[in-house]
Specification:
It is a single chain. By secondary structure, the chain is mainly alpha-helical. It has 1 helix and no strands.
Length: 69
């Protein structure tokens, strides 16, 4: 198998494994600081964007709940 075909097969395996686990969203970003074949997964509750200020609890436009007196 040619190197390019091997890379395609590796990607297809990753996608097959992902869907077999019942995951519903996938966002792929390449990073130079990861070793070849290394992956990193981010998980959050809800459907907001992973890593967004809202998902990290740092939304600037959310009202603070009123404190009870």
């Amino acid at each position: 198998m040619e190197p390019e075909e091997k890379e395609i097969e590796d990607i297809l395996k990753i996608l097959d494994d992902f869907t077999a686990r019942g995951e519903s969203r996938l966002k792929i970003q390449t990073q130079e600081d990861l070793a070849a074949g290394q992956t990193r997964k981010a998980y959050h509750l809800g459907r907001c964007d992973v890593g967004s200020p809202w998902a990290r609890g740092q939304a600037f436009d959310v009202l603070e709940p009123e404190k009870e007196k």
